[in-house]
Design goal:
six-stranded mixed β-sheet; single chain; Virus Head Decoration Protein, Chain: A; 1 helix; two-stranded antiparallel sheet; mainly beta; 125 residues; 8 strands
């Protein structure tokens, strides 16, 4: 319904403000098929060291997935159930912590992840 001066106000919907600055670097990556998994904008991704295959950040991993390297940047959720998917990821820039989709992490793991991201030019505040 149009309000004052024809302006429509949408209440109850908060859009992601993931990006904090105008400077950011994006690149397309391929995520492998993962059963029962749908990825979202703001999720952290990492790479398996031995195979250079992208996957979801997992602080409990020991294969490279414990070190976040990028943030997913696509606007719609993407299902990985049917097979690998090419998605956009952010590799540098400033991002809002409230819009990062964190897995279950304890405070020490989150601090370590934020440092790993900062070392790669990804600032999360």
């Amino acid at each position: 319904m149009a309000g004052l001066l024809g302006i429509v106000v949408t209440q109850g919907i908060e859009h992601s403000q993931l990006i904090r600055s105008t400077m950011h670097t994006t690149k397309k990556i391929t995520l492998p098929q993962i059963a029962l998994t749908t990825v979202k904008r703001g999720q952290l991704v990492a790479m398996v060291t031995a195979t250079n295959v992208w996957g979801l950040y997992d602080p409990a991993a020991v294969d490279g997935l414990q070190t976040p390297r990028a943030i997913l940047g696509m606007f719609n959720d993407v299902s990985l159930v049917a097979g690998p998917q090419v998605v956009q990821a952010y590799f540098a820039g400033e991002y809002n912590d409230r819009d990062i989709v964190w897995p279950v992490v304890n405070p020490a793991e989150k601090i370590a992840a934020l440092k790993d991201l900062a070392d790669r030019g990804i600032i999360v505040e």
